[in-house]
Amino acid sequence: LLLVFAIAPAVVAEQQRRGGTEAQYASVQKFHDDTVKLFNQGDLEGSIDDYLERLRVAHTQRMTIVGRDALEESWGKAFASTQKPYILSNILEMEVNGDEIGDWAYILCDFASLVVDQDTGKQVGDPVNGRYIALLEMTADGWKVLLDIDNGAIGSAPHLEKRLADHLFP
């Protein structure tokens, strides 16, 4: 049972955007939405490709991952299992510093995630919700994640947890 869902992206309020143009904001939003979609489809290669080789993923409650190989090793276990993770994420704030190679964008997002057993179609364990910060860099291949930080605000997005569960278990 592979559940893929589309959630209409929330438009980031104008007062929560800094620096860029409408086109630049739209390109960051599209990157974010496409990244979430690849993750939820279980596309490990596509998901890993959205990160720079020199990436850092830092979690306040867990380990720090450095480099795409380490990220692939960590996520590969989850993607290879019959228990698949799903995420819903909304951008709350963004700042864009251009769209040329080497330029950067910052996003603050809230999220909810849960794991579904593909054999039974049932949720495994408790869902998690909170916030994260990502620093993106523009490359010749488009936006890529350089830094992904769980900012420790666990429990700050219960509304997304309910929306995610409602989409996966209608």
Descriptive labels:
single chain, alpha/beta, 29% helix, disordered N terminus, 170 residues
Concise summary:
The protein is α/β, with parallel strands linked by helices and 170 residues long. The chain contains four helices and seven strands; from the N terminus they run E-H-H-E-E-H-E-E-E-E-H. The two termini are 14 Å apart.
Shape assignment: globular
Overall mean pLDDT: 85
Q: What is the radius of gyration computed over CA atoms, rounded to a whole number of angstroms?
A: 16 Å
Q: Flag low-confidence runs.
A: 1-9
Mind summarizing the main beta sheet? Answer: 7 strands, mixed
Range of strand content: 35-45%
Structural class: alpha/beta
Strand order of the largest sheet: 1-4-5-6-7-2-3
Share in helix: 25-40%
- Tell me the number of helical segments per DSSP (H or I, 4 or more residues long): 4
Number-wise, the strands total 7
Distance between the termini: 14 Å
Order of helical and strand elements: EHHEEHEEEEH
Could you characterize what this model shows?
By secondary structure, the chain is an alpha/beta fold. Helix content is 29%, strand content 40%. The chain contains four helices and seven strands. The protein has helices spanning 22-40, 44-49, 68-80, 158-168; strands at 17-18, 51-59, 64-66, 83-96, 104-117, 123-139, 142-150. Strand 6 and strand 7 form a beta hairpin. It starts with 16 loop residues before the first strand and ends with a helix. The relative contact order is 0.20. Residues 1-9 have low confidence and may be disordered.
